[in-house]
Design goal:
The protein is α/β, with parallel strands linked by helices and 211 residues long. The chain has a single domain, classed as 3-Layer(aba) Sandwich (Rossmann fold), CATH 3.40.50. It is built from eight helices and seven strands; from the N terminus they run βββαβααβαβαααβα.
């Protein structure tokens, strides 16, 4: 495919993975990046989860039918989050594999994304450019406000998130540790700005490495 972003043509297909807990701005950033950098497609892990649910039952796959921050078998926030992520992993990889075969640009965002270089490496090995980001909000009060603002007009409201807020924060800590361990960029969306332009530059740098 021919791509044109920032004056460079004939780009390799791009993959952007955006991880983070509820309320940190994953969907917002994904939409902004897709528009500014002309990505072909956005996939959310929640949507993939809903599709997977149609093929099974809660008794067969309980982790698939609960939120990433809900208590699971172990009761440990980080472990239960990993279980919920594992239940969606095959579906996410199928979406990414299809985009790779089609040679299109893809953004995948969601709380089910575990920072890892395996998928990024697979994409790069096929001649593409891939970047992983983990979004955070370090300030707990600001994070809570973001959740409340986001859910104010939804049917269920923010109550279920706030009831599990300490678990969400614990998962964020685990996410940051994993992201740093695999050299994913960690971005505090409350403190840092100009994400889109920084990503444009990073994709340009990665693309030039392929030339």
């Amino acid at each position: 495919m021919n791509k044109m972003t920032g004056g460079i043509t004939n780009r390799a297909p791009r993959l952007l993975l955006i991880s983070g807990v509820s309320g940190v701005g994953k969907s917002t950033l994904a939409t902004q990046v897709a528009s500014a950098l002309k990505f072909d497609r956005i996939a959310g892990s929640d949507t993939v989860r809903e599709v997977l649910r149609t093929a099974t039952t809660p008794s067969e796959s309980p982790a698939l039918f609960r939120s990433t921050f809900s208590s699971g078998v172990t009761g440990d926030s980080a472990t239960d989050w990993l279980d919920a992520c594992s239940a969606v992993e095959a579906g996410l990889e199928a979406v990414i594999s299809r985009a790779r075969r089609e040679g299109i640009d893809l953004i995948v965002e969601g709380a089910h994304i575990i920072p890892s270089n395996r998928i990024l490496a697979d994409w790069k090995n096929q001649g593409g450019v891939a970047i992983g980001l983990t979004l955070t909000i370090d300030n707990a009060s600001i994070h809570q406000e973001r959740i409340e603002e986001r859910e104010v007009n939804t049917h269920r409201g923010a109550s279920r998130y706030l009831a599990s807020f300490e678990r969400i924060r614990a998962i964020q800590t685990a996410l940051i540790t994993r992201a740093k361990g695999v050299n994913w960029k960690v971005i505090d969306t409350h403190l840092q700005g100009e994400f889109v332009e920084k990503l444009r530059q990073q994709f340009d740098e990665e693309w030039y490495k392929l030339r």
